[in-house]
Amino acid sequence: MVISDETRSQIDEAISKYPKKRGALLPAIHLVQADHGHVSKECAVELAEIFEIRPIEVMEVVTFYNMFFDSPQAKHHVYVCTNLPCSLRGSRGLLSQLESHLGVTAPGETPDGRIFLGHEECLGACGYAPMMRVDDEYHEDLDVEKAKQILDSLGK
Amino acid sequence: MLESPYVTQYLTEHFAEADYPTLEGYERFGGYAAARKALTEMTPDDVIEVVKTAGLQGRGGAGFPAGMKWSFMPKEDDRPKYLICNADESEPGSFKDRIMLERGAHQMLEGILIAAWATGATATFIYIRGEYAFPATQVERAVAEAYAKGYLGDNIMGTGFHHDVRVTRGAGAYICGEETGLLESLEGKKGQPRKKPPFPAQYGAFGMPTTVNNVETFSHVPHIIAKGANWFRGFGTEKSPGTTIFGVSGHVVRPGLYELPLGTPLSEIVFEHAGGVPGGRKVKGVIPGGMSMPILPAGQLDVPMANEFLREQKTMLGTGGVMVMDETTCMVRAASVISYFFRDESCGQCTQCREGTGWMNKIVDRIERGAGEEEDIDVLGDVAGKMEAKTICAFADAAAWPIQGLLRHFRDDFVEHVRQRKCPFPGSFEL
Ligand SMILES: Cc1cc2nc3c(=O)[nH]c(=O)nc-3n(C[C@H](O)[C@H](O)[C@H](O)COP(=O)(O)O)c2cc1C
Ligand code: SF4
Ligand code: FES
After folding, report:
1. Which residue's CA is the nearest one to ligand 2's atom 6?
2. Domain tally, chain A
3. Strand partners, A108
4. pTM exceeding 0.95
5. How many whole angstroms from B192 Cα to the centroid of ligand 2?
6. Domain check: are A60 and A93 in the same one?
7. C-beta A81 within 6 A of ligand 3
8. Domains along chain B?
9. Would you state the pLDDT for residue B1?
10. Is the ipTM beyond the 0.85 threshold?
Protein backbone atom coordinates (compact mmCIF):
# COMPACT_ATOMS: atom_id res chain seq x y z
CA MET A 1 0.00 0.00 0.00
CA VAL A 2 1.39 3.40 -0.93
CA ILE A 3 -1.32 5.42 0.79
CA SER A 4 -0.47 5.48 4.50
CA ASP A 5 -2.91 4.25 7.15
CA GLU A 6 -3.17 7.75 8.53
CA THR A 7 -4.07 9.25 5.16
CA ARG A 8 -6.44 6.38 4.54
CA SER A 9 -8.34 7.13 7.72
CA GLN A 10 -8.47 10.84 6.80
CA ILE A 11 -9.92 9.82 3.44
CA ASP A 12 -12.52 7.66 5.17
CA GLU A 13 -13.44 10.58 7.37
CA ALA A 14 -13.84 12.81 4.31
CA ILE A 15 -16.03 10.18 2.65
CA SER A 16 -18.36 10.19 5.67
CA LYS A 17 -19.01 13.91 5.08
CA TYR A 18 -20.46 13.64 1.57
CA PRO A 19 -23.81 12.22 0.46
CA LYS A 20 -22.00 10.16 -2.15
CA LYS A 21 -18.60 8.62 -1.75
CA ARG A 22 -17.14 10.22 -4.83
CA GLY A 23 -17.68 13.69 -3.37
CA ALA A 24 -14.57 13.04 -1.29
CA LEU A 25 -12.35 12.40 -4.33
CA LEU A 26 -10.93 15.93 -4.55
CA PRO A 27 -10.24 16.03 -0.79
CA ALA A 28 -8.63 12.58 -1.08
CA ILE A 29 -6.37 13.69 -3.93
CA HIS A 30 -5.36 16.76 -1.90
CA LEU A 31 -4.45 14.45 0.99
CA VAL A 32 -2.50 11.99 -1.14
CA GLN A 33 -0.62 14.80 -2.82
CA ALA A 34 0.29 16.38 0.50
CA ASP A 35 2.04 13.09 1.36
CA HIS A 36 3.56 12.15 -1.98
CA GLY A 37 3.91 15.42 -3.87
CA HIS A 38 2.00 13.98 -6.82
CA VAL A 39 -0.49 11.27 -7.68
CA SER A 40 1.48 8.28 -8.93
CA LYS A 41 -0.02 5.37 -10.86
CA GLU A 42 0.07 3.30 -7.67
CA CYS A 43 -1.77 6.01 -5.74
CA ALA A 44 -4.34 6.29 -8.51
CA VAL A 45 -4.96 2.53 -8.42
CA GLU A 46 -5.48 2.62 -4.67
CA LEU A 47 -7.72 5.70 -4.86
CA ALA A 48 -9.72 3.96 -7.57
CA GLU A 49 -10.25 0.98 -5.28
CA ILE A 50 -11.34 3.18 -2.40
CA PHE A 51 -13.79 5.12 -4.56
CA GLU A 52 -14.91 2.11 -6.59
CA ILE A 53 -14.08 3.75 -9.89
CA ARG A 54 -11.47 3.01 -12.56
CA PRO A 55 -7.89 4.33 -12.21
CA ILE A 56 -8.32 6.21 -15.48
CA GLU A 57 -11.20 8.14 -13.92
CA VAL A 58 -8.92 9.21 -11.09
CA MET A 59 -6.29 10.33 -13.57
CA GLU A 60 -8.86 12.25 -15.62
CA VAL A 61 -9.66 14.28 -12.54
CA VAL A 62 -5.99 14.72 -11.65
CA THR A 63 -5.13 16.06 -15.09
CA PHE A 64 -8.17 18.37 -15.28
CA TYR A 65 -7.07 20.49 -12.31
CA ASN A 66 -4.00 22.72 -12.35
CA MET A 67 -3.13 22.01 -8.73
CA PHE A 68 -2.96 18.23 -9.14
CA PHE A 69 0.12 16.54 -10.58
CA ASP A 70 0.62 13.15 -12.17
CA SER A 71 4.42 13.26 -12.10
CA PRO A 72 7.09 14.02 -9.46
CA GLN A 73 7.41 17.74 -8.69
CA ALA A 74 10.08 20.16 -7.57
CA LYS A 75 10.32 20.80 -3.85
CA HIS A 76 8.75 24.25 -4.11
CA HIS A 77 6.25 25.68 -6.54
CA VAL A 78 6.54 29.37 -7.34
CA TYR A 79 3.91 31.01 -9.51
CA VAL A 80 3.94 34.64 -10.55
CA CYS A 81 0.51 35.91 -11.52
CA THR A 82 0.57 37.33 -15.04
CA ASN A 83 -3.08 38.14 -15.52
CA LEU A 84 -4.03 41.65 -16.58
CA PRO A 85 -4.13 43.57 -13.26
CA CYS A 86 -0.78 42.09 -12.22
CA SER A 87 0.72 42.68 -15.69
CA LEU A 88 -0.28 46.34 -15.44
CA ARG A 89 1.88 46.51 -12.32
CA GLY A 90 4.97 44.86 -13.70
CA SER A 91 4.48 41.17 -12.99
CA ARG A 92 5.90 40.04 -16.32
CA GLY A 93 9.09 41.99 -15.71
CA LEU A 94 9.27 40.41 -12.27
CA LEU A 95 8.85 36.94 -13.74
CA SER A 96 11.65 37.43 -16.25
CA GLN A 97 13.97 38.76 -13.50
CA LEU A 98 13.22 35.66 -11.44
CA GLU A 99 13.87 33.48 -14.48
CA SER A 100 17.37 34.90 -14.81
CA HIS A 101 17.91 34.78 -11.05
CA LEU A 102 17.17 31.05 -11.01
CA GLY A 103 18.54 30.33 -14.47
CA VAL A 104 15.32 28.72 -15.65
CA THR A 105 12.74 29.45 -18.30
CA ALA A 106 9.20 29.48 -16.95
CA PRO A 107 7.49 27.13 -16.77
CA GLY A 108 10.44 25.06 -15.63
CA GLU A 109 12.43 23.91 -12.64
CA THR A 110 15.94 24.36 -11.32
CA PRO A 111 18.31 21.46 -12.11
CA ASP A 112 18.53 20.55 -8.41
CA GLY A 113 14.76 20.18 -8.25
CA ARG A 114 14.50 22.89 -5.61
CA ILE A 115 12.14 25.31 -7.36
CA PHE A 116 9.57 25.13 -10.12
CA LEU A 117 8.88 28.59 -11.55
CA GLY A 118 5.76 29.25 -13.55
CA HIS A 119 3.13 31.83 -14.24
CA GLU A 120 -0.44 31.63 -13.12
CA GLU A 121 -3.76 33.28 -13.86
CA CYS A 122 -5.44 35.64 -11.39
CA LEU A 123 -5.00 34.51 -7.79
CA GLY A 124 -7.33 37.00 -6.12
CA ALA A 125 -4.62 39.43 -5.08
CA CYS A 126 -4.96 41.99 -7.88
CA GLY A 127 -4.94 44.97 -5.51
CA TYR A 128 -1.58 43.89 -4.09
CA ALA A 129 0.29 43.33 -7.34
CA PRO A 130 2.73 42.11 -8.35
CA MET A 131 2.39 38.93 -6.37
CA MET A 132 3.49 35.32 -6.37
CA ARG A 133 2.27 32.14 -4.79
CA VAL A 134 4.95 30.02 -3.13
CA ASP A 135 3.48 26.62 -2.35
CA ASP A 136 0.46 27.46 -0.17
CA GLU A 137 1.49 31.00 0.66
CA TYR A 138 0.85 34.34 -1.04
CA HIS A 139 3.52 37.04 -1.24
CA GLU A 140 2.09 40.39 -2.28
CA ASP A 141 3.19 43.95 -3.09
CA LEU A 142 6.48 42.51 -4.32
CA ASP A 143 9.50 44.13 -5.84
CA VAL A 144 12.28 42.19 -7.52
CA GLU A 145 14.61 42.27 -4.50
CA LYS A 146 11.94 41.08 -2.09
CA ALA A 147 10.93 38.28 -4.44
CA LYS A 148 14.53 37.12 -4.94
CA GLN A 149 15.06 37.01 -1.17
CA ILE A 150 11.97 34.87 -0.76
CA LEU A 151 13.21 32.42 -3.39
CA ASP A 152 16.68 32.31 -1.84
CA SER A 153 15.21 31.44 1.53
CA LEU A 154 13.43 28.36 0.21
CA GLY A 155 15.08 25.16 1.46
CA LYS A 156 15.99 22.06 -0.48
CA MET B 1 -4.33 38.27 6.20
CA LEU B 2 -5.58 41.05 3.95
CA GLU B 3 -5.81 44.56 5.30
CA SER B 4 -9.29 45.83 6.08
CA PRO B 5 -10.81 47.77 3.13
CA TYR B 6 -10.02 51.47 2.78
CA VAL B 7 -13.70 52.38 2.94
CA THR B 8 -16.06 50.28 5.04
CA GLN B 9 -19.81 50.07 5.53
CA TYR B 10 -21.93 47.45 7.26
CA LEU B 11 -20.28 44.40 5.64
CA THR B 12 -16.71 45.25 6.49
CA GLU B 13 -17.24 47.68 9.36
CA HIS B 14 -15.49 45.48 11.93
CA PHE B 15 -12.94 43.85 9.66
CA ALA B 16 -10.09 45.77 11.30
CA GLU B 17 -10.85 44.16 14.69
CA ALA B 18 -8.30 41.42 15.34
CA ASP B 19 -10.82 39.07 17.00
CA TYR B 20 -13.65 39.59 14.49
CA PRO B 21 -12.82 36.39 12.56
CA THR B 22 -13.41 34.38 15.77
CA LEU B 23 -16.85 33.47 17.08
CA GLU B 24 -16.28 35.39 20.28
CA GLY B 25 -15.27 38.50 18.39
CA TYR B 26 -18.15 38.20 15.95
CA GLU B 27 -20.68 37.86 18.78
CA ARG B 28 -19.15 40.86 20.54
CA PHE B 29 -20.55 42.89 17.63
CA GLY B 30 -23.96 41.28 17.75
CA GLY B 31 -23.18 38.28 15.57
CA TYR B 32 -25.73 35.47 15.21
CA ALA B 33 -28.57 37.62 16.62
CA ALA B 34 -30.08 37.77 13.12
CA ALA B 35 -29.96 33.99 12.74
CA ARG B 36 -31.58 33.61 16.15
CA LYS B 37 -34.29 36.05 15.09
CA ALA B 38 -34.90 34.17 11.82
CA LEU B 39 -34.97 30.72 13.38
CA THR B 40 -37.08 31.61 16.42
CA GLU B 41 -39.35 34.45 15.27
CA MET B 42 -39.73 34.06 11.50
CA THR B 43 -41.10 31.41 9.19
CA PRO B 44 -39.02 30.42 6.16
CA ASP B 45 -41.48 32.30 3.96
CA ASP B 46 -41.10 35.43 6.12
CA VAL B 47 -37.35 35.31 5.56
CA ILE B 48 -37.69 34.89 1.80
CA GLU B 49 -40.19 37.75 1.71
CA VAL B 50 -37.83 40.12 3.53
CA VAL B 51 -34.90 39.22 1.29
CA LYS B 52 -37.11 39.70 -1.79
CA THR B 53 -38.35 43.07 -0.56
CA ALA B 54 -34.78 44.10 0.22
CA GLY B 55 -33.97 43.42 -3.43
CA LEU B 56 -30.66 41.69 -2.68
CA GLN B 57 -29.00 40.72 -5.95
CA GLY B 58 -26.38 37.99 -6.25
CA ARG B 59 -22.85 39.32 -6.01
CA GLY B 60 -21.18 36.46 -7.90
CA GLY B 61 -21.43 38.12 -11.29
CA ALA B 62 -24.89 37.59 -12.75
CA GLY B 63 -26.86 39.73 -10.29
CA PHE B 64 -29.83 37.39 -9.97
CA PRO B 65 -32.28 38.31 -7.13
CA ALA B 66 -31.41 36.11 -4.14
CA GLY B 67 -34.87 35.92 -2.56
CA MET B 68 -36.39 34.79 -5.83
CA LYS B 69 -33.72 32.14 -6.27
CA TRP B 70 -34.46 30.78 -2.80
CA SER B 71 -38.16 30.57 -3.60
CA PHE B 72 -37.38 28.20 -6.51
CA MET B 73 -36.38 25.49 -4.06
CA PRO B 74 -39.17 22.87 -4.12
CA LYS B 75 -41.25 22.82 -0.96
CA GLU B 76 -43.22 19.60 -1.32
CA ASP B 77 -40.17 17.46 -1.78
CA ASP B 78 -38.73 15.24 0.91
CA ARG B 79 -35.34 14.81 -0.73
CA PRO B 80 -32.44 16.44 1.12
CA LYS B 81 -31.82 19.98 -0.12
CA TYR B 82 -28.49 21.69 -0.35
CA LEU B 83 -26.96 25.12 -0.49
CA ILE B 84 -23.68 25.90 -2.16
CA CYS B 85 -21.56 28.82 -1.10
CA ASN B 86 -19.55 29.73 -4.17
CA ALA B 87 -16.10 30.75 -2.89
CA ASP B 88 -14.29 29.88 -6.08
CA GLU B 89 -13.49 33.54 -6.80
CA SER B 90 -11.30 33.40 -9.87
CA GLU B 91 -12.69 36.08 -12.15
CA PRO B 92 -9.56 38.11 -12.94
CA GLY B 93 -9.70 41.44 -11.16
CA SER B 94 -11.80 40.10 -8.25
CA PHE B 95 -10.47 39.73 -4.74
CA LYS B 96 -13.37 40.69 -2.50
CA ASP B 97 -14.57 37.23 -1.51
CA ARG B 98 -11.11 36.48 -0.19
CA ILE B 99 -11.38 39.14 2.52
CA MET B 100 -14.92 38.01 3.34
CA LEU B 101 -13.50 34.53 3.97
CA GLU B 102 -10.43 35.70 5.84
CA ARG B 103 -12.06 38.26 8.09
CA GLY B 104 -15.79 37.67 7.84
CA ALA B 105 -16.28 33.90 7.86
CA HIS B 106 -18.85 34.00 10.66
CA GLN B 107 -20.86 36.72 8.93
CA MET B 108 -21.00 34.49 5.85
CA LEU B 109 -21.90 31.43 7.95
CA GLU B 110 -24.69 33.33 9.65
CA GLY B 111 -26.05 34.25 6.21
CA ILE B 112 -25.81 30.60 5.20
CA LEU B 113 -27.69 29.50 8.30
CA ILE B 114 -30.50 31.98 7.61
CA ALA B 115 -30.68 30.88 3.95
CA ALA B 116 -30.76 27.25 5.09
CA TRP B 117 -33.72 28.01 7.32
CA ALA B 118 -35.48 29.83 4.49
CA THR B 119 -34.98 27.05 1.95
CA GLY B 120 -35.15 24.03 4.24
CA ALA B 121 -31.64 22.99 3.24
CA THR B 122 -30.04 20.20 5.25
CA ALA B 123 -26.44 20.93 4.33
CA THR B 124 -24.24 23.60 2.76
CA PHE B 125 -21.08 22.95 0.80
CA ILE B 126 -18.65 25.84 0.81
CA TYR B 127 -16.53 25.42 -2.30
CA ILE B 128 -13.30 27.42 -1.91
CA ARG B 129 -10.82 27.79 -4.75
CA GLY B 130 -7.79 25.59 -4.13
CA GLU B 131 -5.29 28.44 -4.04
CA TYR B 132 -7.09 30.08 -1.11
CA ALA B 133 -5.27 27.96 1.47
CA PHE B 134 -5.23 30.55 4.22
CA PRO B 135 -8.82 31.74 3.72
CA ALA B 136 -9.89 28.08 3.87
CA THR B 137 -8.27 27.65 7.28
CA GLN B 138 -10.23 30.66 8.57
CA VAL B 139 -13.50 29.23 7.28
CA GLU B 140 -12.75 25.79 8.70
CA ARG B 141 -12.04 27.31 12.08
CA ALA B 142 -15.25 29.31 12.00
CA VAL B 143 -17.28 26.22 11.05
CA ALA B 144 -15.75 24.24 13.93
CA GLU B 145 -16.54 27.06 16.36
CA ALA B 146 -20.13 27.26 15.13
CA TYR B 147 -20.60 23.50 15.62
CA ALA B 148 -19.11 23.70 19.13
CA LYS B 149 -21.49 26.51 20.05
CA GLY B 150 -24.57 24.72 18.71
CA TYR B 151 -25.03 27.09 15.75
CA LEU B 152 -24.56 24.21 13.33
CA GLY B 153 -25.40 20.52 13.63
CA ASP B 154 -28.41 19.22 15.54
CA ASN B 155 -31.05 21.27 17.27
CA ILE B 156 -29.56 24.65 16.34
CA MET B 157 -30.23 27.32 19.00
CA GLY B 158 -32.67 24.89 20.60
CA THR B 159 -35.09 25.10 17.66
CA GLY B 160 -34.83 21.52 16.45
CA PHE B 161 -33.45 22.74 13.12
CA HIS B 162 -30.54 20.75 11.75
CA HIS B 163 -27.89 21.97 9.34
CA ASP B 164 -24.44 20.76 8.37
CA VAL B 165 -21.68 22.75 6.70
CA ARG B 166 -18.82 21.17 4.75
CA VAL B 167 -15.80 22.95 3.37
CA THR B 168 -14.50 21.66 0.03
CA ARG B 169 -11.34 22.92 -1.60
CA GLY B 170 -11.10 23.24 -5.36
CA ALA B 171 -7.92 22.50 -7.24
CA GLY B 172 -7.28 25.27 -9.75
CA ALA B 173 -9.83 25.57 -12.56
CA TYR B 174 -11.61 28.85 -13.37
CA ILE B 175 -14.61 27.03 -14.81
CA CYS B 176 -15.46 25.54 -11.40
CA GLY B 177 -16.83 28.98 -10.47
CA GLU B 178 -19.66 28.47 -12.96
CA GLU B 179 -22.35 26.97 -10.78
CA THR B 180 -22.83 23.66 -12.57
CA GLY B 181 -19.09 23.23 -13.16
CA LEU B 182 -18.82 23.68 -9.43
CA LEU B 183 -21.44 20.98 -8.84
CA GLU B 184 -19.52 18.53 -11.00
CA SER B 185 -16.30 19.32 -9.17
CA LEU B 186 -18.02 18.96 -5.81
CA GLU B 187 -19.13 15.50 -6.89
CA GLY B 188 -15.51 14.54 -7.52
CA LYS B 189 -15.49 14.96 -11.27
CA LYS B 190 -13.94 17.20 -13.90
CA GLY B 191 -15.50 20.63 -13.50
CA GLN B 192 -17.35 20.66 -16.80
CA PRO B 193 -20.59 22.67 -16.73
CA ARG B 194 -23.91 20.85 -17.14
CA LYS B 195 -26.58 21.48 -19.71
CA LYS B 196 -29.53 23.39 -18.28
CA PRO B 197 -32.35 22.52 -17.71
CA PRO B 198 -32.56 20.82 -15.32
CA PHE B 199 -31.61 23.75 -13.13
CA PRO B 200 -29.89 23.21 -9.78
CA ALA B 201 -33.10 23.93 -7.85
CA GLN B 202 -34.49 20.69 -9.33
CA TYR B 203 -31.34 18.66 -9.89
CA GLY B 204 -28.26 20.09 -8.24
CA ALA B 205 -25.52 18.74 -5.99
CA PHE B 206 -25.59 14.93 -5.85
CA GLY B 207 -28.87 15.11 -7.77
CA MET B 208 -30.70 17.02 -5.02
CA PRO B 209 -32.45 20.41 -5.08
CA THR B 210 -29.70 23.00 -4.69
CA THR B 211 -29.27 26.76 -4.47
CA VAL B 212 -25.94 28.37 -5.30
CA ASN B 213 -25.00 31.77 -3.92
CA ASN B 214 -21.82 33.76 -3.76
CA VAL B 215 -19.86 34.42 -0.54
CA GLU B 216 -20.78 38.10 -0.51
CA THR B 217 -24.45 37.44 -1.26
CA PHE B 218 -24.73 35.32 1.90
CA SER B 219 -22.82 37.93 3.89
CA HIS B 220 -25.45 40.64 3.29
CA VAL B 221 -28.25 38.45 4.64
CA PRO B 222 -27.72 38.80 8.41
CA HIS B 223 -27.82 42.59 8.04
CA ILE B 224 -31.06 42.47 6.08
CA ILE B 225 -32.70 40.22 8.67
CA ALA B 226 -31.41 42.25 11.62
CA LYS B 227 -32.19 45.72 10.28
CA GLY B 228 -34.92 45.12 7.72
CA ALA B 229 -35.54 45.48 4.02
CA ASN B 230 -36.11 49.24 4.19
CA TRP B 231 -32.84 49.85 5.94
CA PHE B 232 -31.06 47.83 3.23
CA ARG B 233 -32.80 49.83 0.52
CA GLY B 234 -31.30 52.95 2.08
CA PHE B 235 -28.04 51.97 0.37
CA GLY B 236 -27.56 51.87 -3.36
CA THR B 237 -30.09 52.60 -6.08
CA GLU B 238 -33.80 51.84 -6.45
CA LYS B 239 -33.07 48.82 -8.63
CA SER B 240 -29.74 47.78 -7.10
CA PRO B 241 -29.87 48.14 -3.33
CA GLY B 242 -27.07 47.63 -0.82
CA THR B 243 -23.34 48.05 -0.87
CA THR B 244 -20.72 45.93 -2.54
CA ILE B 245 -16.99 45.59 -2.19
CA PHE B 246 -15.20 47.04 -5.18
CA GLY B 247 -11.73 45.70 -5.82
CA VAL B 248 -9.64 48.31 -7.59
CA SER B 249 -6.50 47.23 -9.44
CA GLY B 250 -4.12 48.37 -12.14
CA HIS B 251 -2.90 51.92 -12.66
CA VAL B 252 -4.15 53.71 -9.54
CA VAL B 253 -2.46 55.29 -6.54
CA ARG B 254 -4.32 53.18 -3.96
CA PRO B 255 -5.32 49.80 -5.34
CA GLY B 256 -7.37 47.74 -2.89
CA LEU B 257 -10.87 47.13 -1.55
CA TYR B 258 -13.62 49.72 -1.08
CA GLU B 259 -17.07 48.94 0.29
CA LEU B 260 -19.42 51.45 -1.30
CA PRO B 261 -23.11 51.64 -2.20
CA LEU B 262 -24.12 50.27 -5.58
CA GLY B 263 -24.61 53.19 -7.89
CA THR B 264 -21.44 54.97 -6.80
CA PRO B 265 -20.05 56.64 -9.95
CA LEU B 266 -17.11 54.76 -11.42
CA SER B 267 -15.19 58.05 -11.60
CA GLU B 268 -15.58 58.53 -7.84
CA ILE B 269 -14.15 55.06 -7.21
CA VAL B 270 -11.22 55.56 -9.56
CA PHE B 271 -10.29 59.17 -8.83
CA GLU B 272 -11.46 59.96 -5.30
CA HIS B 273 -11.16 56.64 -3.52
CA ALA B 274 -8.32 55.00 -5.40
CA GLY B 275 -6.50 58.30 -5.97
CA GLY B 276 -6.50 58.27 -9.77
CA VAL B 277 -3.58 57.34 -11.99
CA PRO B 278 -0.11 57.90 -10.51
CA GLY B 279 2.37 60.32 -12.07
CA GLY B 280 -0.31 62.65 -13.44
CA ARG B 281 -1.00 60.35 -16.37
CA LYS B 282 -4.48 60.04 -17.83
CA VAL B 283 -6.90 57.14 -17.71
CA LYS B 284 -7.37 55.34 -21.03
CA GLY B 285 -9.98 52.77 -20.09
CA VAL B 286 -11.53 50.97 -17.13
CA ILE B 287 -12.92 47.45 -16.94
CA PRO B 288 -15.73 47.91 -14.42
CA GLY B 289 -16.60 44.43 -13.18
CA GLY B 290 -13.95 41.76 -13.57
CA MET B 291 -12.27 40.69 -16.77
CA SER B 292 -15.40 39.28 -18.45
CA MET B 293 -17.05 42.68 -18.55
CA PRO B 294 -16.54 45.06 -21.49
CA ILE B 295 -14.23 48.02 -20.95
CA LEU B 296 -15.34 51.65 -20.68
CA PRO B 297 -13.30 54.45 -22.25
CA ALA B 298 -12.18 57.48 -20.22
CA GLY B 299 -15.16 59.51 -21.42
CA GLN B 300 -17.75 57.17 -19.87
CA LEU B 301 -16.56 56.96 -16.29
CA ASP B 302 -19.39 58.97 -14.79
CA VAL B 303 -21.63 55.93 -15.01
CA PRO B 304 -23.14 54.83 -11.68
CA MET B 305 -21.94 51.33 -10.78
CA ALA B 306 -25.25 49.49 -10.96
CA ASN B 307 -26.45 47.18 -13.71
CA GLU B 308 -29.36 49.35 -14.83
CA PHE B 309 -26.86 52.10 -15.76
CA LEU B 310 -23.93 49.96 -16.83
CA ARG B 311 -26.11 48.03 -19.29
CA GLU B 312 -26.80 51.27 -21.14
CA GLN B 313 -23.05 51.48 -21.70
CA LYS B 314 -23.03 47.84 -22.89
CA THR B 315 -21.24 46.50 -19.85
CA MET B 316 -22.09 45.11 -16.41
CA LEU B 317 -21.19 45.20 -12.74
CA GLY B 318 -20.00 41.59 -12.73
CA THR B 319 -17.96 41.04 -9.60
CA GLY B 320 -17.12 44.71 -9.05
CA GLY B 321 -13.48 44.21 -9.99
CA VAL B 322 -12.41 47.63 -11.32
CA MET B 323 -9.27 47.49 -13.50
CA VAL B 324 -7.77 50.81 -14.44
CA MET B 325 -5.52 51.26 -17.46
CA ASP B 326 -3.63 54.48 -18.09
CA GLU B 327 -2.75 56.19 -21.36
CA THR B 328 0.43 54.14 -21.83
CA THR B 329 -1.56 50.91 -22.06
CA CYS B 330 -1.69 49.00 -25.32
CA MET B 331 -5.23 47.70 -25.66
CA VAL B 332 -4.11 44.99 -28.07
CA ARG B 333 -1.78 43.68 -25.38
CA ALA B 334 -4.68 43.78 -22.96
CA ALA B 335 -6.70 41.79 -25.51
CA SER B 336 -3.84 39.33 -25.77
CA VAL B 337 -3.75 38.68 -22.02
CA ILE B 338 -7.53 38.43 -21.86
CA SER B 339 -7.88 36.07 -24.83
CA TYR B 340 -5.00 33.89 -23.60
CA PHE B 341 -6.78 33.43 -20.29
CA PHE B 342 -10.04 32.35 -21.89
CA ARG B 343 -8.31 30.04 -24.35
CA ASP B 344 -6.49 28.42 -21.47
CA GLU B 345 -9.53 28.02 -19.23
CA SER B 346 -12.19 26.86 -21.71
CA CYS B 347 -13.34 23.42 -20.60
CA GLY B 348 -13.57 22.37 -24.24
CA GLN B 349 -17.07 20.84 -24.28
CA CYS B 350 -18.57 23.26 -26.83
CA THR B 351 -17.00 23.70 -30.24
CA GLN B 352 -17.77 27.44 -30.52
CA CYS B 353 -16.07 28.10 -27.19
CA ARG B 354 -13.08 25.80 -27.64
CA GLU B 355 -12.36 26.94 -31.20
CA GLY B 356 -13.47 30.54 -30.74
CA THR B 357 -11.25 31.26 -27.74
CA GLY B 358 -8.29 29.74 -29.62
CA TRP B 359 -8.98 31.81 -32.75
CA MET B 360 -9.42 35.05 -30.86
CA ASN B 361 -6.11 34.58 -29.08
CA LYS B 362 -4.30 33.71 -32.29
CA ILE B 363 -5.63 36.70 -34.22
CA VAL B 364 -4.99 39.16 -31.39
CA ASP B 365 -1.41 37.93 -31.03
CA ARG B 366 -0.84 38.24 -34.76
CA ILE B 367 -2.03 41.86 -34.67
CA GLU B 368 0.05 42.62 -31.59
CA ARG B 369 3.20 41.28 -33.29
CA GLY B 370 2.58 43.62 -36.21
CA ALA B 371 1.79 40.73 -38.54
CA GLY B 372 -1.95 41.35 -38.81
CA GLU B 373 -4.04 42.71 -41.67
CA GLU B 374 -6.94 45.11 -41.42
CA GLU B 375 -9.37 42.30 -42.24
CA ASP B 376 -8.12 40.39 -39.19
CA ILE B 377 -9.78 43.03 -37.05
CA ASP B 378 -13.14 42.28 -38.66
CA VAL B 379 -12.60 38.55 -38.39
CA LEU B 380 -11.87 38.99 -34.70
CA GLY B 381 -15.18 40.80 -34.24
CA ASP B 382 -16.98 38.06 -36.20
CA VAL B 383 -15.46 35.24 -34.16
CA ALA B 384 -16.44 37.01 -30.93
CA GLY B 385 -19.97 37.63 -32.23
CA LYS B 386 -20.47 33.98 -33.07
CA MET B 387 -19.56 32.84 -29.56
CA GLU B 388 -22.41 34.51 -27.72
CA ALA B 389 -25.38 32.61 -26.29
CA LYS B 390 -24.89 29.33 -28.08
CA THR B 391 -23.03 27.28 -25.52
CA ILE B 392 -23.58 25.13 -22.44
CA CYS B 393 -22.45 27.87 -20.08
CA ALA B 394 -21.86 31.62 -20.10
CA PHE B 395 -18.09 31.25 -20.25
CA ALA B 396 -18.13 31.72 -24.03
CA ASP B 397 -20.03 35.00 -23.68
CA ALA B 398 -17.64 36.03 -20.92
CA ALA B 399 -14.77 35.40 -23.33
CA ALA B 400 -16.34 37.31 -26.20
CA TRP B 401 -17.59 40.42 -24.34
CA PRO B 402 -14.25 41.92 -23.31
CA ILE B 403 -12.86 41.52 -26.85
CA GLN B 404 -15.98 43.13 -28.30
CA GLY B 405 -15.62 45.97 -25.79
CA LEU B 406 -12.02 46.59 -26.77
CA LEU B 407 -12.93 46.61 -30.47
CA ARG B 408 -15.84 48.96 -29.81
CA HIS B 409 -13.84 51.58 -27.96
CA PHE B 410 -10.23 51.06 -28.98
CA ARG B 411 -10.41 49.93 -32.58
CA ASP B 412 -7.80 52.57 -33.40
CA ASP B 413 -5.21 50.71 -31.33
CA PHE B 414 -5.79 47.62 -33.45
CA VAL B 415 -5.68 49.60 -36.70
CA GLU B 416 -2.42 51.33 -35.72
CA HIS B 417 -0.75 47.96 -35.10
CA VAL B 418 -1.69 46.89 -38.61
CA ARG B 419 -0.60 50.18 -40.23
CA GLN B 420 2.72 50.49 -38.41
CA ARG B 421 3.34 46.72 -38.53
CA LYS B 422 4.42 46.89 -34.90
CA CYS B 423 3.10 47.74 -31.47
CA PRO B 424 2.84 51.55 -31.24
CA PHE B 425 2.95 51.48 -27.43
CA PRO B 426 6.51 50.45 -26.55
CA GLY B 427 6.05 51.77 -23.02
CA SER B 428 3.12 49.52 -22.26
CA PHE B 429 3.44 46.50 -19.98
CA GLU B 430 5.59 43.64 -21.29
CA LEU B 431 4.05 40.58 -22.86
C1 LIG C 1 -17.34 31.15 -16.28
C2 LIG C 1 -18.04 31.54 -15.02
C3 LIG C 1 -17.30 31.67 -13.85
C4 LIG C 1 -17.94 32.01 -12.66
N5 LIG C 1 -17.18 32.13 -11.52
C6 LIG C 1 -17.80 32.46 -10.35
C7 LIG C 1 -17.06 32.56 -9.14
O8 LIG C 1 -15.84 32.34 -9.11
N9 LIG C 1 -17.72 32.90 -8.00
C10 LIG C 1 -19.08 33.12 -7.99
O11 LIG C 1 -19.63 33.39 -6.94
N12 LIG C 1 -19.80 33.03 -9.12
C13 LIG C 1 -19.20 32.70 -10.29
N14 LIG C 1 -19.96 32.59 -11.43
C15 LIG C 1 -21.42 32.78 -11.32
C16 LIG C 1 -22.09 31.49 -10.85
O17 LIG C 1 -22.37 30.67 -11.97
C18 LIG C 1 -23.40 31.76 -10.13
O19 LIG C 1 -24.19 32.57 -10.94
C20 LIG C 1 -23.23 32.44 -8.79
O21 LIG C 1 -22.36 31.74 -7.97
C22 LIG C 1 -24.58 32.56 -8.11
O23 LIG C 1 -24.48 33.26 -6.90
P24 LIG C 1 -25.16 34.69 -6.69
O25 LIG C 1 -26.54 34.60 -7.29
O26 LIG C 1 -25.18 34.85 -5.21
O27 LIG C 1 -24.30 35.68 -7.37
C28 LIG C 1 -19.33 32.24 -12.64
C29 LIG C 1 -20.06 32.13 -13.83
C30 LIG C 1 -19.43 31.80 -15.01
C31 LIG C 1 -20.25 31.68 -16.26
S1 SF4 D 1 -19.03 27.47 -22.97
FE2 SF4 D 1 -16.87 26.91 -22.87
S3 SF4 D 1 -16.46 26.67 -20.69
FE4 SF4 D 1 -18.72 26.62 -20.92
S5 SF4 D 1 -19.23 24.45 -21.15
FE6 SF4 D 1 -18.92 25.23 -23.23
S7 SF4 D 1 -16.72 24.82 -23.64
FE8 SF4 D 1 -17.01 24.63 -21.44
S1 FES E 1 -4.37 39.55 -11.63
FE2 FES E 1 -2.80 38.82 -10.38
S3 FES E 1 -3.87 38.34 -8.59
FE4 FES E 1 -5.47 39.01 -9.88
Report:
1. B350
2. 2
3. A117
4. yes
5. 7
6. no
7. yes
8. 23-233 (3.40.50.11540), 243-326 (3.10.20.600), 331-420 (1.20.1440.230)
9. 84
10. yes
